[in-house]
Amino acid sequence: MFNKKEQKEQDFSKGFVYNTEEQRGKGKLSLVLVVVTVLMIVLVAFTTLQNTTIFAGSQPGTLTGFAVDEMGAPIQVEVSVYDTNIKVVSDAYGFFRINDVPGGDQSVIVAYGRVASEVKVNVKSGDVTDVGAVVVQTSLVEELELN
Questions:
Q1: I want to staple 93 with a disulfide (CB 3.0 to 4.6 A). Which of 14, 74, 78, 130 is the partner?
Q2: What is the distance between the alpha carbons of residues 69 and 138, in angstroms, rounded to a whole number?
Q3: pTM for this structure?
Q4: CATH of the domain at 110
């Protein structure tokens, strides 16, 4: 039998040593509970981040297309994304490419002088969306200039 004096004078030079299997099991269980708790906190944090705009499918996409007049001839135009500061000028053949367009439904304005056509498009996040041929009524420009 141990008396109280002997219990106080135990040797801890090798660290704390569990005396029984039950004490060892409790220590391992505590460690497992700490690890599981930390993993759950990380999982909740990651799930929360996925719901922010960074991960919520709002990655920018790219728009491509080309502009033609009512006769099908290529024309150089100014292309902008409505309600943004994004604006480009097509090449001489009417081809345009707009990078960093917000994902989702967008209105693309294709302008030739004071006349424009609007194209509604769903920009695919992180991908290229082609709007194809956009027809601009260039004959209206001449009418506007005459008036």
A1: 74
A2: 6
A3: 0.58
A4: 2.60.40.1120
Distances (CA, A) of 37 to 32, 48, 71, 113: 9, 17, 68, 63
pLDDT tens for the chain, 147 residues: list them.
555 555 556 666 666 665 555 556 666 777 778 888 888 888 887 776 654 545 445 689 999 999 999 999 999 999 999 999 999 999 999 999 999 999 999 999 999 988 889 999 999 999 999 999 999 988 876 655 655
Same domain, 70 and 133: yes
Q: What is the count of structural domains for the chain? A: 2
